[in-house]
Fold this sequence. Notes:
Strand content: 15-25%
CATH superfamily of the largest domain: EAL domain
Pfam families: EAL, GGDEF
Mean pLDDT: 82
InterPro entries: Cyclic-di-GMP_PDE-like, EAL_dom, EAL_sf, GGDEF_dom, Nucleotide_cyclase, Rev_trsase/Diguanyl_cyclase
Transmembrane segments: 139-161
Number of strands: 19
Low-confidence stretches: 397-405
CATH topology of the largest domain: TIM Barrel
Domain EAL: 407-647
Distance between the termini: 95 Å
CATH class of the largest domain: Alpha Beta
Protein name: Diguanylate phosphodiesterase
Number of domains: 4
Structural class: alpha/beta
Amino acid sequence: MAGFKKLILIQLISWLLCVVAGTYFISAQFDSAVSDAQINAQNTITKYIDNSSFNDEAAQNLKNALADGKTFSRFTLRDFQGAEVFTINSPARLPVFAQFIESVFNSVRPQFAVNTAADIKVEFTINIQHLGEQLQTSFFIVFFMSAILVIIPVILMKSIFYRLNRNISMTIADVIDIYINQNQASNDLKIALDGSKLQKLGKDLVPSFNRLSYFLKSKNDDIQNAALSIKQEAYKDVITALGNRNMFVEYYEKNIENVEQSTFGSLAMIRCSELQIINQTRGYQKGDEYVKAVADIVKHISGTYTGSQVFRLNSSDFAVVLPHVPLKEAERFGENLQSRFTQYQQNQELSSVANTGIVGYEKGKPLGELLSIVDNAMSMAQSKQVNAWHVQRETDLINNVSAGFGNQNWRKVINEVIESKRVHLVMQNIMPLGKNSKAYAEIQVRFKTEENQTLPTASFLAMAEKLDMAIDIDKLIIDSSLEKIKTRNLSEKNFGLNVTASSAHNDQFVIWLERRLLKDTHIASKLIFEVSEFGLQQNIKASKRFIDMVHRVGARITVERFGVGLTSFKFFRDLKPDFIKMDASYTRGLEDDKNNQYFMRLMVDLAHRIGVSVFAEGVESQEEKHIVETLLLDGVQGYYIEKPKDM
Length: 647
C-alpha cells in the first residue's frame, strides 16, 4: 500500500510538471503571437499613412478605416504639432488566465507610427481578446487532457493493485493451509507447492515459513516451560517444598495406574500424629517446624531408594512411592522411619511423632482403592504404639474382608484402654497476669497400650470420636482425674478438664457427670470444664443445659479455641461461661500482627464487660508474653510459661 501511494504521488507530480510545461509553452506562443500582431499592425498603419497628408478628410477616413475598436483597443491621431485630433478607446476584457499571462510577459505595449511628411502621428494599442480566448482554451485543453491521462492510469493501477493484493492474500492463505496440514515447512512443503498453482509465488514463501516455524517452536517451548514452572509452583507445598496432592495424583495416574509396561512397588503413608496438639499448645509456627522436620526425615530415609517420590497430601499426611520395592524391603523402610521418629521425639520432648501405613501397588491399581487400603494400614499402625508402622498385605485383606478392619482394631485398643484404665495424666499451668486474676492447671491425658507404649493422642481421640466412644473416654478421663486429685491431696488447686462437644450434648453423659461431681462437691468447685467454641455452637440448647448443670454443682466453664468460629457475644450472655481461651493462631507472631492485637484487645474489653476472663494459649516467646500482658489478658499458657508435667 505504501508503494501504491508513492506511485500515485509520482503520477501527480508528473501531471503537475506536465501542466506547468504545457502552460509555459502556451504562454510563450501567446506572447509571440501578440508580438507578431503588434508588428503587423504597425506595418499596416505605417503603409496606410505614409503617402497621406494631414487634412480633415484624411483624418476622418483614417478614423473610419482603422479605429473600429476591433483591431485596436486604443487609437490616437495627432497632427504635426502633436495636438490630439481624436482618440478612440474600446478596451477589451481578457480572460483571467490570459490577463495573468499578459501581465507576466508584458506582451501588449503601446505602438507608434509617423508618415513621411511627419504631419500625421498615430499612437495605438492592439486588441488581443481573440488571442486571450485562444490561450484560455488551449490551457483548459492541456489541463484536462493531462488530468485524464493521469487519472485513468491511477484508477487502473488501484484496481490492479487490489486484484494483485487479493491474489497474493489467497496465495499466502493456500500456502498457510498446506503449512498447517503438514505442521511444518520443509522439503515436503516445496514438493506440495510444485504441484499447484502456487509454484512461482509459493516457493518464495518457503524460507519465510521456515523462519516462522522455528520462531513458533521457540515460543511454544517458552510457553511450555513457563506453564511447567507455574504448574510446579502450584503443585508445590509451601512449607516442605514437596509436591502436593494434585502432583501425587498426576504422578500416580501417569506412572502407575495408566502406564503401559508392567510395574509394581510400595506406597507408604506417613501421618503426623502430634500436629493438632502442637498447633494448639505451642503455636502454628512450632507446628510448621514439626511438619518440616518430619518431611526432612521422610526425604532422607526414602532418598536411599532409587526413583522414590515424596508428596505432602494434606496438613498432616505424606505419601511416599517406592518403585520396584517389594513389601519385604518396605518393612525395613518402616523400621528406619520409626527409629528416626523416636529419636526426634526424644529430642523435642513429644508424646509421638508419626505413624506409617504401607501397602503394595501394581499396574492398573485404582488410586482411590489403594488410598483406602493404606488408610486402613495407617489405622492399624496408630493402634499399635508410638511411631509404629504397619504393612497391609493382600492376604490380610482376604482374611479380613471387612472394610473396617482398621476401625475394628482401634475399637479393640480403645476398649482395652478403657477397661484397664491405662491413662497417664499430666498438667500444664496457666499463669495469671494480674493480682486478682484467677487461673488453673489444665489436665492433659496420654493413653497407653498393653506394652505400656504411648498411643498418638490426637489419633486416639479422633478414632474414639469416629467410633462413638468419645463419651466413654471422657468418663475415663474425668474419673481418673478425680481419683488423682483425691489421692494426691490436690483439692485446693483448680484444674481444667477437656470435654468433647458430643459428650456435652449427650443427656446421659450430663446426668452421669452431675451425679459424679455431687459425690465430690469439694473437688467439683475446683474444676473447670473446657469445651471448644465450635462444639458449643453445634447445639446451643444442649450446650446451655450442660453449662447450667456445671454451674449448679459449683464447677466452671471455659470456651477454648475461641475466635475460630463466628460466635456473637449474645451467645456468651446466654451461656454465661467463666473463661474464654483464645485460639493459639492469634498468639502466633502476635508482636508483629497489629490486626490480631486489635482483635484480642477488643475481645478482652467485651469479655470483661460481661465478667468473663480471657486467657491466651500457645505462648512460645518472651515477646508474645509481653504483648499479651499489654493487651490486659488475664492469663497465659504455653511452652514458654511451662511444659506439661506429671501430676
